C-alpha cells in the first residue's frame, strides 16, 4: 500500500493558505457554512425523529416488531449507500447539482413514507429516503474540503459534529411532542417539510464549491480508479476503519441503551430521555473541543485521546454488565464512550480527506459508508443475547478494533500538517 497524497489543485494566495474556492466564496461565507452544516441533520433526524412513534407504527401496520425495526436498519444502509453513490458523482458534476437532486428526492420519499400502506412498502421507502439523505451528508463533508484547509477545516468538522449531536438531542424530543398532535404519518410529513426548507436554503444560498476545472472526468472507469487509489492508501484506509469501528460502538449504544437503562436499571422514559440528552450534550461539547484541540495540538494526539475515552467507556459498560455496578457507573461509562466517539470524528475526517482535495466526494463517501454500514451491522448484535453483556461486548469489540486500526495504519504515518489560520 502507498500513502502518496494526491497533487493538490492550484492553491489560493500564499498569504491565506486557503483553497481557491474559499477565496471566491469569502463573501457570504458564513451563510454558506450554516447551510452546509444543516445538511448533517439528515442522518440523525431521519433516525431519531420517529422513534417515539415506532410502537404505534407497528400496531397501525399490523407488523411484527422485528419487521418494524427494519425501517430503522433500511434507512441506515440507505444513508451509507447514498454517500457511496453521491460522493463520486459530486466529484464529476460538482457539488450543487447532485445535492439539489438528493434533497428534492428526500422530500418526495418522505411523503412516500407517510403514505406507505404496508410495513414492507415503508421499509423500501425508508431505504430510498436514506439514499437521498446520504447525499447531503457526503456533500457537506466534501464541500468543506473545497472551502477550507488546515485549522479552518478542523473547526468546520468540529461544527458538523456539534450539529449532529444537537440533532440527536432535538430529534426524539421534537418527535415526542409531535406525537401528541399527529401520528407517525404526520412525522414523516414533518421530515418532508424540513427537506423543503433545506432545499430552499440550498437554492438561494449555496453556490457551487467545486469549479469545473477541478472536477474529475472519465466516468465510471475513473471512479473505479479513484476508489482503488484510495483503498491502496494505508493511512486513508486506517482513518476509515477507525471511524467505522468507533461508530459501530456508538450505534450499539443507540440500540442497547434503552434496554439497559429502562429494562435493567428501571429508569422511566423521562429519566431515559435525560440520560440520552446528557450523552448527546457530551457528544456536542467534546466534538467541538476536538476540532480546536486537533488544530492547536495534534490530529493524531487528539484521535488517540478519543480512542482512549471510547475504550474506557466500553470497558466500563462491560464491567457494569458483569459486576452489576450501580447506575452512576453506567451513566459515566456511556458519557465516556459517546464523547470519545465525538473526539475521534474531526481528526479522522481531516486525516482521511487531507490528501485528496480533487476527489473529496469519493473519499467522503467511504467515511460515510463506514459510519453507517458498520453501525447498521453492529446494532442487531446487541440483541443476540440476554442482559447487558452483549452491549458491553460489542462496544469493547468496536473500541478494540478501532485502536488496532489506529496502531497498524494511522500512528506514525505522515506528520500532521501545520495548522493554517
What features would you describe in this structure?
The structure is a single chain. With 421 residues, the protein is an all-alpha fold. It has one domain (35-410): MFS general substrate transporter like domains (Growth Hormone, Chain: A, Up-down Bundle). 76% of the residues lie in helices and 0% in strands. The chain is built from 16 helices and no strands. It has helices at 20-24, 29-38, 42-48, 54-60, 65-93, 96-114, 119-147, 150-178, 184-205, 219-231, 234-264, 269-296, 299-323, 327-353, 360-378, 389-410. Helix 6 runs antiparallel to helix 7 (119-147), helix 6 packs antiparallel against helix 9 and helix 13 (299-323) runs antiparallel to helix 14 (327-353). It is globular. Residues 1-17, 22-28 and 415-421 have low confidence and may be disordered.
- CATH class term: Mainly Alpha
Provide the helix percentage: over 70%
* Mean pLDDT level: 82
Task: Give the end-to-end Cα distance, rounded to a whole number of Å.
Answer: 32 Å
H/E order of the elements?
Answer: HHHHHHHHHHHHHHHH
Assign the structural class, choosing from mainly alpha, mainly beta, alpha/beta, alpha+beta, or little secondary structure.
mainly alpha
Q: Uncertain spans, ≥5 residues at pLDDT below 50?
A: 1-17, 22-28, 415-421
Q: Kindly report the name of the CATH homologous superfamily.
A: MFS general substrate transporter like domains
Indicate the CATH architecture.
Answer: Up-down Bundle
Biggest beta-sheet profile: none
- Strand content of the residues, in percent? under 5%
User: How many runs of DSSP E, i.e. beta strands?
Assistant: 0
Output the radius of gyration. Answer: 21 Å
- The tally of domains stands at 1
